[in-house]
Structure prediction request, 158 residues.
Amino acid sequence: MNLNKVFLLGRVASDIELKRTPAGQSVCTFSLATNRIYKDASGQKKEDSQFHRIVLWAKQAEIASQFLTKGALVLIEGRIQTRSWEGTDGSKRFTTEIVGEAMQLGPKSAGVVDYSSNIGKSFDAPATSKKKNPQDDIDDEIPIIEDGDEIDIKDIPF
Prediction:
């Protein structure tokens, strides 16, 4: 038995590109950033960021283009796929991407303040709200568990 399954929780790192195939099928692509915090051999904290190309199809592509913006938290479940093609210079080119099979939007406080008020509007400007910037509280809401740290059962929120 073989398994090709990926779970990525990260932040949208690029604008969402929504396109349609000649047959009318919706497809969108965007970059997702994930990071890892660890201690090196000398005990110094280090951070490693990875960027993943995400491809979503059909209804998921339309939902992503409507609700996701740069910096929004999103969970993608999918599979790894490598494609190849011939470049304009005749060389063989390759790309590895995550084809999303399921998507879960992050909490409202981790992205757009009010999704419903932004339908059909540009996502470049923040939603009209007198609340403070939700990005300020993100570090407090999402704990970072580092490799080698012991987890205390009292720290688990459920």
